Amino acid sequence: MYKFRDLSIDREYIPEELPVEALNYGGHWLDREVPGFQTLVTTGRQTFQRQVNATSRVGDGDTYLSSRLESKKIEVMFNFKSDNIGEYNERLDRLRQLLYQPKQPFYFADEQEYHYVGTVSELTLDKNTLNTTGKITIEVSDPYQYGKEKHLSGVGVNVNIVDNELKYPQTPKLLVFTPTMTTSNLKITCGNKKIELSIGVGAGQPVRVDFDNLNVSINNVDSLMDVTLDSNLSDFLIVNGSSIGFNTNGNYELTYEVKKL
User: Fold this and answer.
1) pLDDT in tens, 70-85
2) Which of 45, 60, 204, 246 is the most buried (most CB within 10 A)?
3) pTM of the entire structure?
4) Other C-beta atoms within 10 Å of 256: how many?
5) Which parts of the chain are beta strand (E)?
6) b/e sequence 175-196, b meaning 16+ C-beta within 10 Å
């Protein structure tokens, strides 16, 4: 399409601008792929709730024991327009199709570098008319947002993590360490946490620690049973300034995602 300015033709193509809080669910911009759909506003993105476990004292107040962040609910309000019933049914069917898949990454136009993972639990329309408003409710089991994967690799006995975006303690996604010499009882540490093997590892055999799936393999063979019981697979936390150490020299590859509330 041409635009005219003072009788001259402007051939520059400018894509249609998305609403500020436009939703991308499972890799699909609803505002672009569903005609007549327009994001209005969202709620629940900037809030969190913490469940506190405490016991009553004999005196005033309670004694704090533990706490946990609860899952969150994000709601997206939208306009939905069509000119006739056929168009209405076709567009609504397309919207349902895009929202059907559970446990999908999703993000918003004003913060595309971070994503949530969630499941659409409800799609509602306020009126049974051709022009109406509606609401998409997304249940977010993990309340954190995650950035793109980052990778650190090198050779040595330490991985020093310098990342100002890494503000919240978190487990990595994956750590692969390949010793350059045969090692008995390989030990990986970070602060007061450790992952230790009760068997030897041959030179050149990669030890793969999969934190997402809580699994350890040696040379592509499942070796979870060879991890000592006092190891910290689920709470091996890193943060900006952390240092991961090995009790022998080798090649390392660390993969993690920055998370935030």
Assistant:
1) 999 999 999 999 999 9
2) 246
3) 0.75
4) 22
5) 3-5, 8-10, 23-25, 28-29, 37-43, 50-56, 62-69, 72-81, 104-108, 111-125, 131-140, 145-160, 174-179, 187-190, 193-196, 207-210, 215-218, 221-222, 243-260
6) bbbbbeeebeebebbbeebbbb
